[in-house]
Structures are given as C-alpha cells and as structure tokens.
C-alpha cells in the first residue's frame, strides 16, 4: 500500500496536504493561541526566578549587614 506524500497538522496531528502546517483555520488558531499561552507561562516563570534571585540576594546582604 502506498501513501501519498503528506504532512501532519501541527495542532491535531491529522494528515494534511504536503507542505501545509494545519488541516484547517481552526487548528491554526488553536495552535497559535496555545503557543501564545506557552510564551506567557515561560515569561512568568523567568520573572519569578529573577524576582526570587533578587530577593535571595537582598536577604543575604541584609543578614550580612546585621551581623556586621
């Protein structure tokens, strides 16, 4: 059995015409929304890590100043 050359939808994984990234506009929109949310999550994570490091450094400096 021979399968014609094809691609798979980046969102749902269904077969699509060769070279197409999505099977329809709904999947494209859902994929883009998912990617946007993932970028937001990543940004929140990096901000949290940065704020935690600043807080730890501030606490360390404060302790060092208190101890003299």
How would you describe this structure to a colleague?
With 68 residues, the protein is mainly alpha-helical. It has one domain. Helix content is 63%, strand content 9%. β1 and β2 form a beta hairpin. The model has no long low-confidence stretch (mean pLDDT 95).
Q: Classify the secondary structure makeup into a structural class.
A: mainly alpha
Cα(first) to Cα(last) distance is 80 Å
- Overall structural domain count: 1
Number of helices: 1
The count of strands amounts to: 2
Proportion of beta-strand residues: 5-15%
Strand order of the largest sheet: 1-2
**Elements, N to C (H/E):** EEH
Describe this protein with a few key phrases.
single chain; 68 residues; mainly alpha; two-stranded antiparallel ribbon; 1 helix; 2 strands; rod-shaped
Task: Tell me the layout of helices and strands.
Blueprint lengths: L5 E3 L6 E3 L7 H43 L1
Antiparallel strand pairs: 1-2
Offer a concise description of the structure:
63% of the residues lie in helices and 9% in strands. It has 68 residues and is mainly alpha-helical. A two-stranded antiparallel ribbon has the order 1-2.
């Amino acid at each position: 059995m021979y399968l014609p050359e094809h691609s798979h939808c980046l969102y749902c994984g269904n077969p699509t015409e060769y070279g197409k990234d999505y099977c329809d506009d709904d999947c494209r929109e859902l994929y883009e929304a998912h990617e946007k949310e993932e970028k937001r999550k990543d940004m929140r994570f990096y901000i949290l890590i940065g704020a935690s490091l600043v807080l730890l450094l501030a606490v360390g400096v404060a302790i060092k100043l208190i101890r003299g």
